[in-house]
């Protein structure tokens, strides 16, 4: 979460006072709901033709997979370092998540993606973790060569870009999260973006089983299938419209803080940074330090803590590491065996089975990386304070 304030409170109050809390509430000719306006503004911001606001990033991933017609018999390649939701989404549509390695950028390793492709693979899901863009050029090339589609999980990277294009708009489909911890937030929320009308229509139907009722006569009505309810409400959409106006300024400040930190710290012989796929475009919500081994990373984090700063190892972040995804590692794909992707006949031929040691490089990289959070509200003195703390911590390690 970057910032929420008076403008968001006023936007929410305006909607509450109007009494129009439901996105299809008014129905008056020409009236655009807050949800529809947010969708238009998001489409403009990220440069995608179609956008759909939903109730969470998880819902956005699920609707994105529905848009791509993923189902039983299909595999989706996800990185071993991401929030468990990236791997749960394929299960929700009956498909199997296949777990691949990350590289020194802490995002999906394109080389390991190639190694994990099988004849069942349908989608590659790069995840822009902690606002760090995945290597999209290489991932898109691998996808094209193998006839696969790309669903970008940009849930931790709202507003970021890669080589001049917004994260989420590069693959066939993109997903954002607007939960409390994200760059753009309304407490809970998400969005799907795509340039393809048919994919959008499927996501739209799946996000709202009643969409044909709310939008009678629309072309999508003729192709209805049973959907769910991941419909966004007007109060949260009004908050999101304000948040969207803040995002570029916030990320600019983050990037400038990060550039100053890196410039000042790069001279120190004990400091090395993680690999960056696009330093100019990334969200710069973290600065990643790279060490030779876990012992060094832990020593650096401890020394930072002595200086009153908090450095964290991504290996310690619970369900962001595949070994902690119990429901997946133990192949319990749903509450009911009949709905469990792992038990579906179409998925029986798949291999390999999950093992804790199946992505050793991912575990190794996560264990020898330290992240320092960067905050947009920092002033120059706050940046200098972090520079001093990092230099002292690096000195203390000898
Ligand atoms: C990488 C990633 N993917 C997906 C999600 C799911 O988003 P949400 O919590 O909005 O469902 C998250 C949220 O934490 C995430 O970090």
Commentary on this structure:
With 398 residues, the protein is of the alpha/beta class. 38% of the residues lie in helices and 13% in strands. The protein has 13 helices and twelve strands. Strand 6 and strand 7 form a beta hairpin. The longest helix has 32 residues, at 234-265. The radius of gyration is 22 Å and the shape is globular. The site of pyridoxal-5'-phosphate (PLP) has 14 residues, from helix 3 and helix 4. Pyridoxal-5'-phosphate is lined by residues 56-58, 82-83, 85-86, 127, 153, 155-156, 177, 179, 190.
Mean pLDDT over the residues: 95
Give the proportion of residues in helices: 25-40%
CATH topology of the largest domain, anyone?
Answer: Aspartate Aminotransferase, domain 2
Distinct bound molecules: pyridoxal-5'-phosphate
Computed CA radius of gyration, to the nearest angstrom: 22 Å
Order of helices and strands: HHEHEHEHEHEEEEEHHHEHEHHEH
CATH superfamily of the largest domain: Type I PLP-dependent aspartate aminotransferase-like (Major domain)
Structural class from helices and strands?
alpha/beta
Counted by DSSP, the helix tally is 13
* Distance linking N and C termini: 36 Å
CATH class bucket of the largest domain: Alpha Beta
